[in-house]
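Quick one: sequence plus fe (ii) ion SMILES, need structure tokens.
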Amino acid sequence: MDRWSYVSLLLTIFFFPQLLLQSNASPEYIRQPPRPVILTPHHRSESDPQQVHISLVGKDHVRVSWVTSEKHVSSVVEYGKRAGRYDASAKGEHTSYHYFFYSSGEIHQVKIGPLEPSTTYYYRCGGSGPEFSFRTPPSTLPIEFAVVGDLGQTEWTASTLEHVAAKDYDVLLLPGDLSYADTQQPLWDSFGRLVEPYASRRPWMVTEGNHETETFPIIYPSGFKAYNARWPMPYEESGSQSNLYYSFDVAGTHVVMLGSYTDFDARSDQYKWLEADLAKVDRRKTPWLIVLLHAPWYNSNLAHKGEGESMRKAMEKMLRKARVDVVFAGHVHAYERFTRVYDNKADPCGPVHVTIGDGGNREGLALMFEEPSPSISLYREPSFGHGQLKILNNTHAHWSWHRNNDSNSVMADEVWLESLSSSKKCMEIAVEPSPSLTDEL
Ligand SMILES: [Fe+2]
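Reply:
Sure thing.
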């Protein structure tokens, strides 16, 4: 083979699959490559709050988390319903951690409330520094969730966050892989500063991904040191023993956050906790039941194929029995929506599975899907983006996926969902799906 034939063969091998992939997407859209990591510097004083973010705790409280470089700042939050007028305050606690030669700043956690629903509160952390504000979620439906996984801190992340914020959502749900610090602890601080303008304004509820583990043999065998210190979630309030899995109720929705990177077999604490948690769900109070986890149980992308399989085998039956409406996963850097499924088959009483691991991380997109597409996979596309789940009432919700396009966010997929709690047949039938069920419903 002469030199030019060899070069043209290489070019064909490299470009042909990409041309094929692009031809499957919408004709007007050209898929974008990864973009560089953004390092977000610290501009405030040593005692001022940085990396401010909030999360829901119980029915009417919010946890405010922030970091100060200065060690002797009070863990106090002053707050009120008018800008600059703080008629309430609450004290909390602070901690710090070491990871090899890195020492974190002081990490403050303060629970504030009781708070009124659908209300804007203004607040200040540590008695000085800038004022922040957030809006509490509604106490009843409708509610709007933003869903974004595998966020990272690149220029794509910034673009995704701008698009998410333009939607005026109530609560953000993140199915794992936050900072992509991967043991480089200053990147946790940089990530906290990047997301602060968004995470200080709306509750962010997260669960862990593989990039949060940061284990190291002998020295840090159990991992999650930075994640647990910086992103505490309301696990105690939901009877969980671990920050790696928990649940909460918000406006007619019970949200279960599972841990793909802790034990999940039938003897595990997580399994027993999930069994007890699902048994307590009252669909008259929370007609919607959604689950988030990191490694998808259903995935037709070639990336991370089968990685969620052992967890699926351990827990899928429980989720079907509880009539979970939707399972959101991350990990695979692409978008994929399945029909209602159970045990690898379409099942009208199983959850819809959605992979939404396309927040904008530095590793880029997972471009290759298996061919032909399995019949249970209804839409799949490797593009950066985010999802929106608008739960309108007890029976109907609208799910949409918004692909990032340079300055706009383009809705590329949407579907109306009916809650399984409104399906008489699904609420009545036994755990095991009958062969005739699909025909019946
Ligand atoms: Fe991941």
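The pocket of fe (ii) ion is lined by residues 150, 177, 209-211, 294, 331 (CB under 6 Å). Residues 73 and 126 are 6 Å apart (CA to CA).
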